[in-house]
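re: ur question from earlier - yeah i can do the single chain one, its not a big deal. heres the input i used so u can compare w yours
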Amino acid sequence: MQVQSVSITRSDKPQVLAAATVVLSDNSGDTITIEDIRVLLNKSGQEWVALPNRPVQTPGHARQFTYLPIVSCSRELVRRIETEVLKHYDQWATTQKSEVR
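and the output i got, formated as tokens:
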């Protein structure tokens, strides 16, 4: 699978820098779209990518959750997705800054 396209949009979630949608394609032309990919900032100030997940309440703990992936990919494919999303995010963020001025 190859990353065919990446689109970046502003996120309405407070801790999220941006949201991304990635379209993957294989050699036969079949595609899969992954939505709700998040670009986040860690405590060290480094941007990182989180694939979509869903919270599941931990049994016996009313306010404790485990986050399970919605999409599972090979480590290599995850790295390609992360690289492409961060590259497109940097380009998008630059245009957002220039539009604010």
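Helices lie at 75-100. not sure if urs matches, ping me
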